[in-house]
Amino acid sequence: MLRISTVNVNGIRAAQRRGFGDWLTATSPDVVALQEVRCPEGALPAGVWGGLHAAYDEGNRAGRNGVAILTRLPPKAVRTWSEPGGFGFTLARELPAYAAEGRYLEVDLADAPLTVASVYVPKGGLPAHLQLPGRMREKPDGGAAYRRKMRFAAGLARHVARARRAARVRGREFVVMGDFNAAHTHLDVAAWRRARNAVGFLPEERAWLHGMLSPRTLVDVVRRLHPDAPGPYSWWSWMGRSFEVDSGWRIDYHFATPGLARTAVRTWVAREVAGVLMSDHAPVTVDYAFSDRVAEVGEGLAQQHAMAAEHLGLDARVRGLFR
Questions:
Q1: Mean pLDDT in the chain?
Q2: Residue 311: half-sphere exposure toward Cβ, Cα within 13 Å
């Protein structure tokens, strides 16, 4: 079994004070994708990763962003947008503008044929025609934040498609996780009727998510396990009683290739750690029977190879090479 989690910690130092270490110990994940780590590498709290190995891109915006991936073994390879040579393909034209911000990190696991990515999508804003006086908390910006997010989204969609294909060439499944700052369908927002013209649930944002998913490319793993149920939500506003009444949004995803998605057997959202909110986001964890599937495939291939060797009349010594 392979246990994989994703969580926007909203600042690792604050999350550590609120129980991140306790959650890590209790959950015992094999892989964790983190977003909004918000901490220079040299200032990370001692032992914060709980003995796991960390690949970390803190970005160049002090106190903002930062993505990490924790693994049990040092990853076989680490790739970031700030050093894109390792991808084996050119970054989408929209992405160099975001490359140094600490928004995307990708690793190849050393102990499983799997590539894992952690992403933090910009929050964005409203398009200009929806920026009505008296109906916004933020200062109107003429749609600049909206356009910036949608440029990022377009580049990310292209990048993930290329990364998925590159993983397949390397003989690996692929999963991209993180805070996408957008909800896909009405099942992903508790008060979806009120949210239809809200940042994160705009038609263009929903269409972007929809375009990234298909049965042959990437699958929304949690929705596959809970096809008709609202939620499970992973983000709640700090304002009001959103958390208490579970008026949340599902914006933290596992998007996996079909071969990996089919092995998902259980998922849950850890809303609290010992009664304390670790962040305004909650960890989303999935158990994949992936290592079991890999073992079955490996055993099947070994049997096929041995049968082929016997059919060809090879001696026992040579047949042993196929086991």
A1: 91
A2: 6
